[in-house]
Amino acid sequence: MSKQHIILKLAGIFSLILLVSVSRAQEPNFSQFISSPLTINPALCGSSDADWRVSSIVRRQWIGNVSPYSTQTISIDGKIKSFDDQRYFGLGGMVLAERVMDGMYKTNFLSLNASYHQPLDEKGNGLSASLGLVSGSMRLDMGALSFDQQLSSTGFDQALPTGETAIVGSSSHTSATAGILYTYDTDYSFLNLGLSGYRFVSSKRSLMNNPSPKIAPRYTAHADFGTIFSDNLSATFSALHLIQDGASITSLGAVVGFLFNPSDYAEDRVRMLNAGVYYRWNDAVSPYVGYIYDNFQVGISYDVNASSMKGAASNYKSVELSIIYKKFLPRSRKRIGRYHSPY
User: Fold this and answer.
1) 187: how many CB neighbours lie within 10 A of its CB?
2) Where do the DSSP E strands lie in the chain?
3) With CB atoms counted within 10 Å of each terminal CB, which end of the chain scores lower, N or C?
C-alpha cells in the first residue's frame, strides 16, 4: 500500500473516532423526513388515518469516489385500541441502521413507543402524548476493510495479512424518549404541531472505553399542514428543526399531489402522483417524486448540494427511497385531505 493511501485511511479512521467520541454531529436524519415519523416524534404513533402504517427509507449518501454512507430504517405503528373516531392508544417500533466505509463503522437503533390521543372538542382539535425507550449500539472494526496487500488475481482476499494494526471497539446505550403533539384533523385538512425529546437519560457513547463522552439529548420541533384545493389536487407543507449539543438542522418540505381518479376514491382505487421539494437549510435541495397505488406509496428524492462546500462535494451524491404501506380495517374512514401524506 502506498504511503498516501495509508495516510488517507488513517486520517479517515481517526476522524471518525473523534466524531463519534465527542458526539457533536447530528444523528441520522432524512431529506424525506415526513416519511419517517417515528424519527421525528414518538407522539406520531398511530397518528395516520390508517389503522396501521409501515414506513421504510433507504438513504445512500456520498455516492461517488468513496464508500457510500448507508442508512436504512423501517417502522411500524398503529392504533392498538380505538375508543371512537378520535380517541385511541397508539403503539410503534422502529429499527434504524447505519453502515459506513464498507461496514467498518456500524450503528443500530431500536425504539419502542406508546402514545395516547385525546380529542379536545368536536371540531377536530386533539392532543397526543407519548413515552418510549430507545436502545442503540455502535461498532468500529478495521477488519471489515480491504487493503492493497489483500488484492489477488481473483479480487480482494481478506484472509491475507495486511500489516495494519487492528482496531475494534463497541458501545451500547439505553435511554428514554417523549413527545407531545397538537392535531387538527378534518375531512379536508390536517395540522400537526409537535415537540419531542430523545435520550433524556445520560449514557456513555465511546468506542475506545473513554468514560467521558456522553450522548447529548436531541430535541425536535415540527409542523405539518395538509389540505386539498380541489377534488384531485392537494398539498402538504412540512417544517422540522433539530437541536443537539449546540448544533441544529432545519428542514422544509412542500409536496403537491394529483389524484387521477377522485370519483373512485372511496372505493379504495387510488392513483396519485406526488411531486415537490425538500430543503435542508444551507445544506441541500432535494427534488421529490412519488406515486400512490391503493395503500402503497413510494417516493424518491435526490440531494443537490447547496452548502458552502458545494465545490468540494460536487462529486458525491445522495439518494433516498421511501416506501409506505397503510392498512385500513373495515371500520376505518379515510380522509381525502390527508391520504396523500404519510401522516
Assistant:
1) 13
2) 52-63, 69-82, 88-100, 105-119, 125-141, 151-152, 155-156, 168-185, 189-198, 218-228, 233-244, 247-259, 271-280, 284-293, 296-305, 317-327
3) N
DSSP secondary structure, 97-161, as one string: EEEETTTTEEEEEEEEEEEEEEE-SSSSEEEEEEEEEEEEEEEEEGGG---GGGEETTEE-TTS-
At 150, phi and psi to the nearest 5? -95, 5
Q: Are strands 189-198 and 155-156 parallel, antiparallel or unpaired?
A: unpaired
Are 225 and 232 in contact by the 8 Å Cβ rule? The answer is: no
Give pTM, 2 decimals. Answer: 0.79
Which of these, 256, 248, 309, lies nearest to 284 by C-alpha position?
309
Q: DSSP alpha helices (H): ranges in 191-234?
A: none
- Looking at residue 49, its pLDDT comes to 82
Q: What is the mean pLDDT of residues 278-288?
A: 93
Alpha carbons 95 and 264: distance in angstroms, whole number? 35
According to DSSP, residue 233 is labeled: E
Tens-digit pLDDT profile for residues 244-266: 888 899 999 999 999 887 776 65
Nearest to 184 by CA among 258, 256, 120: 120
Q: Give the side-chain half-sphere CA count within 13 A for 63.
A: 12
Q: What is the pLDDT of residue 303?
A: 93
CB neighbours of 18 closer than 8 A, spacing ≥ 6? none
Enter the DSSP assignment of 307.
Answer: S
